[in-house]
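2024-03-11 09:14:02 INFO queue: dequeued item Methyltransferase type 12 domain-containing protein, len=279
2024-03-11 09:14:02 INFO validating residues
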Amino acid sequence: MQNERTWQFWDDYYTSQEKDAQEWIVEPTIDLLEKLSEHLPRHNRTIHILEIGCGISTSARDFYSYLLKKNIDANVIATDISPVCIALNQQRDDLTPTEHRFEYRTLNVAEQHPDLNESFDIILDKGCLDTFAFRSKQRGQNQPYALLIRTVLDNIHSWLQPDGVYWVLTPRRKFRSVRDFRGFETVHRVELTTIPRGELVSTQQHTYLHVCQKNQQYLPNTDDHAFCKGHEETIDDDSSCPKCHKTFYEFRKGEPMDGQGKSVWWRRWRGHCRHCKRK
Ligand SMILES: C[S@@+](CC[C@H](N)C(=O)[O-])C[C@H]1O[C@@H](n2cnc3c(N)ncnc32)[C@H](O)[C@@H]1O
Ligand SMILES: [Zn+2]
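2024-03-11 09:14:37 INFO prediction written
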């Protein structure tokens, strides 16, 4: 699906790299890892995590070490389309044989992999889908729902477990294709204000984490209406009811959201916005 030139582009990019680690968008500081861990599933099983488009970032490895320290049982696979970058990571991290619960692999997110279906609790994406969105814009299409993006989102949906989540770290406050993708039941946006930005950023001021909960009703690769325009805005604490102007935070009376509680709050909030009678 994705042409060989793209693959070659990234291989050349990593071949010419002099550093052995580099971060786009945001640095995997302890603050970021803590922020991410607030969105971990609450079950007691091993947490299976896939990173897509890992580049030569250390995010997945650092998150794995962080979880180990917290005694959280996790299995992490960090992937990228570029074999050069995967080889660089493998050399850099020199993983001992006991570290078989963390590995680097090549994976093209634009291709289907039935062997990965329903495998992951979390799919982490720091700048991968961004590159597809950027390319679609560069080609003058500027289509948030470009076919390639839909293919990638369908694959992500297939690889998530029924209650899995897709975490997108991006400078985009609004990520329309993510927000409107029917394969996600809810998309919750968290602004990451205090976390240092990566070295490879444009003039972006902020970084956002979009937490996307899988919609189990959606059938990837068959649904003709993968995107629904006019889907509710991404919900965050500042989202406000169009009628009574109460914010989502006020609606919850400041109550924190954790674990399973999140989807309940989001459902209640959508219900409120739909039925609110106040002017
Ligand atoms: C903007 S970089 C982000 C790298 C890294 N996640 C970081 O935060 O530093 C995008 C990455 O996506 C990878 N990529 C591009 N197309 C891909 C595809 N079809 N499948 C998997 N990875 C891809 C590139 O090789 C590149 O490493
Ligand atoms: Zn209201």
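2024-03-11 09:14:37 INFO annotate: Residues 2, 6, 10, 22-25, 52-55, 57, 80-82, 85, 107-110, 126-128, 131 surround S-adenosylmethionine (ligand 1) (CB under 6 Å).
2024-03-11 09:14:38 INFO item closed
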